[in-house]
Automatic annotation (TrEMBL):
GO terms for cellular component: plasma membrane. Pfam families: ABC_membrane_2. Keywords: ATP-binding, Membrane, Nucleotide-binding, Transmembrane, Transmembrane helix, Transport. This is ABC transporter ATP-binding protein/permease. PANTHER family: ATP-BINDING CASSETTE, SUB-FAMILY D MEMBER, LYSOSOMAL COBALAMIN TRANSPORTER ABCD4. It is found in: Cell membrane. InterPro entries: ABC1_TM_dom (IPR011527), ABC1_TM_sf (IPR036640), ABC_transporter_sub-D (IPR050835). The lineage of its organism: Bacteria, Pseudomonadati, Pseudomonadota, Alphaproteobacteria, Hyphomicrobiales. Residues 65-363 form the ABC transmembrane type-1 domain. It is a multi-pass membrane protein. SUPFAM superfamilies: ABC transporter transmembrane region. The chain crosses the membrane at residues 58-79, 99-123, 189-207, 219-239, 304-328, 334-355.
Amino acid sequence: MVDHPVASSSGPARAEKAGVQRAGRTGDPGIVPAGEASFSQQLRMMWRALLGSPLRRCLILTSSGLLVLIVAMACGQVMLNRWNQPFYDAIERRDLPEFFHQLVVFAWIAGALLLINVAEGWLNRYLHIKLREGLVRDLLEQWMRPGRAAKLARSGEIGVNPDQRLHEDAWHLADLSADLGIGLAQSSVLLLSFIGVLWSISAGFSFHIHGTSVDIPGYMVWAALAYAGTASFISWLLGRPLIRLNADHYAREAELRAALVRASQNVEAISRSGSETAQRGRLVGTLEDVLAATRKIMTASIRLQWFTAGYGWVTVVAPIVIASPVYFAGDLSFGGLMMAAAAFTQVHSALRWFVDNIGSIADWRATLLRVASFRLALIRMDEK
């Protein structure tokens, strides 16, 4: 995500500066308050950096290749899901020849999925590397433009520990962006692929209650949406505080590292003045701030884990329970029940992507805030 050329203020750089001015500012222009740039503004800023990057073509090709493999993987999983019905029906009929035939079919499907999985894994890691390279190159270029680094160092809190923003935060943001983006794409494609399977299984199903028929076309789809949607909403409520807590934790960690570096650089002066006790007190105080921030994250994470872990155990039996009315009504064979349960699991897994990744999303939002605020401050150095 590198803006070029350095010597010109046209193109992406001018657009960025215009976006900065629209964001407004309070106080010292070098200090970026946490809430000043909205989430959408932060994303637009990083997107503009990506569009101006010399790695743009590589990133687009890699992402496109990954998307093709994700779609191919989803097609293979749909084939594997359909394989469930004849396989389990053969078991129910005790049909040994058909049983062995279906094992051969499984071997072909599994072999194809294995090849796709390996290729997808390779492109996944390659995308991680290129995103890291682009983001770090962009931040280095912004930081090392004439006069910016010196002005940033005099701009208060935002200028403290630029090394962490340039290295750890940038790398962490690249990794999280790749992981979450690929995971979201996989879940979306799986959802589109398997909703049709679930709908066809329960399209004409009716509940019979005391002689009264209640038609709910595609009821397994609605059940999956309600089940995963409720879990996602509760997870969002429980995980939302982690965004702010993670951002605060990263800031406290950076302060501790900076304090340790300063103490190491001034060890002779500290020794001559006999101020070891005072220095130790300051370092311990900074350490306590880190530990306090860590404890807050631990408390919020455990609260979230109570729900996600319990929800995970319920999900072990939920697909069979939800599909069982169709089976006991005689509208499904045993193989059809297993196919329906597997399809429900796939739809549910896609829908619960948010539940599984709420902690990572909170971490990503916090890291994006730190990196985008740092980049915003660097751009503003030209206004000082």
